[in-house]
Amino acid sequence: MFSVFIVGRMFKRHRNIYNSLSFSAFILLLINPFIIYQVGFQLSYLAVFGIVFLQPKIYQLWSANNWLIDKAWEITCVSIAAQLATFPLGIYYFHQFPTLFLLSNFVVIPTAFLALILGILIITSAAMGLSVVKLIGALLNIVLWSMNEAVFFIENISFSVIDGLEFNMLQVILIYLCIVFFVALWLFKSFKYLVTAVILLTLVTLVEVGEAQARSKKKEVVFYDVRNNSVIDFRDGFNADFYIEESSAIQNAVKFIIGPDRLEKGLVHENIDIKSFKDWASPTDNIQVKVWNNIRFVRLNGKKWQGLEYDQVIETDYLIVSKDCVDSIEKLQEVFSFDLLIIYSSNSYYRSKTLTDEASRLNLNVHATGSNGALILEF
Predict the structure, then answer these.
(1) Are 333 and 314 in contact, with CB atoms under 8 Å apart?
(2) Measured distance CA(136)–CA(138) in Å, rounded
(3) How many CB atoms lie within 10 A of CB 279?
């Protein structure tokens, strides 16, 4: 966008920031049309549009006589404008709202501007072969390090973020429309814009109520794809039972995979009550059984089951295998009858592929989390 702006200035053409913004996005989309799905692209252009459109109008609300206070007010206006333009999408993707964004932007905006200048100087001096490039690089490193440390410090403040927020895409669209009409109300002082904004806010609430009602009636089981681990979440309305094989290796998965997924489904993800598969009924070695809403799940977690004798075939709805505990599907069928075979990524890649191929040849229903990802069963 800055490149387009500068080129227009070089040719002494009339500059329109909205045209520059749109044209730069058009060029990036020509290069990679799928960039429109990237979070960074969406938030960056929304933030710039918000700053360009809203910041001058917010800035005019108050005038400071002191130069330093005026600059602080200008940065505050930039922060408010960018936050208004991005917070619905930020909540949609990250499920949180930064309460101290004004404080962090007082650090980020000036240091980012300084970093941009130093970066341009590095490119210029390097192209000219100037020895000063090392000094500029050292200064840039100090600037970026200082900015990151300041942001990390603010992030660690206990009330810096409101977590656990959730918008679906319909709510995001409605909230953006609501912002548009509130801005129109502010600019044009027309009662019809207030009425429209209130109606949109009501719709957002109704969507949330509908989501909660649908969630209360939903029953589902989620088999997560977590490397070298077995993770199953049994969900009944707003209640959930969460079972894992090795709790010591699950922290990152809870933070980045399981927690956000639970939050999106309307479940509280903080302080997840982690349970062990040892809580399942275990009629014999390496066989664990759980009956949930009259649905039977059998999990195999070792090879000892193969050396035992059985009076009859064990019937189950879902059969779960982990940790290379099965050598052959045919041997498995001699002991178990199942509707779906679930092969966890705690099995080796070779074993998972071998079992999947064999199950396919036998026309059995199979799902391997290592190659197919998580499995969600809805009832």
Answers:
(1) no
(2) 5
(3) 11
Q: Do residues 101 and 161 lie in contact, with contact meaning Cβ atoms separated by under 8 Å?
A: no
Q: Which of 295, 262, 308, 378 is nearest to 320 (CA)?
A: 295
- What mean pLDDT is predicted for residues 63-69? 89
Nearest-angstrom CA–CA distance, 77 and 44? 17
* 271 pLDDT higher than 60: no
Q: How far apart are CA 291 and CA 283, in angstroms?
A: 13
- Give the predicted TM-score (pTM) of the model: 0.75
Residues sharing a CB contact under 8 Å with residue 364, sequence separation 6 or more, in sequence order? 329, 341
C-alpha 344, offset from chain centre: 23
In this prediction, residue 269 has a pLDDT band, given cuts at 50, 70 and 90, of low
- How confident is the model at residue 20, as a pLDDT? 85
End-to-end CA distance of the chain: 49
Q: Determine contact, residues 43/86, Cβ cutoff 8 Å.
A: yes
According to DSSP, the residues that pair with 342 across neighbouring strands are 320, 367
350: which residues sit within 8 A by CB, 6+ positions away?
none
In a 10 Å sphere around its CB, with 0-12 CB exposed, 13-18 middle and 19+ buried, how is residue 281 labelled?
Answer: exposed
Q: Which residues, in sequence order, are CB contacts of 46 under 8 Å at separation 6+?
A: 85, 86, 89
Are 303 and 286 in contact by the 8 Å Cβ rule? The answer is yes
* Single-letter code of the amino acid located at 172: V
b/e 163-196 (16+ beta carbons within 10 angstroms → b) = eeebbeeebbebbebbbebbbbbeeeeeeebeeb
Judge whether 332 and 347 are in contact, CB under 8 Å. Answer: no
Q: Closest Cα partner for 226 from 205, 251, 204? A: 251
Distance CA 187, CA 148 (A): 37
Which residues, including other chains, have CB under 8 Å from residue 331's CB and lie 6 or more apart?
306
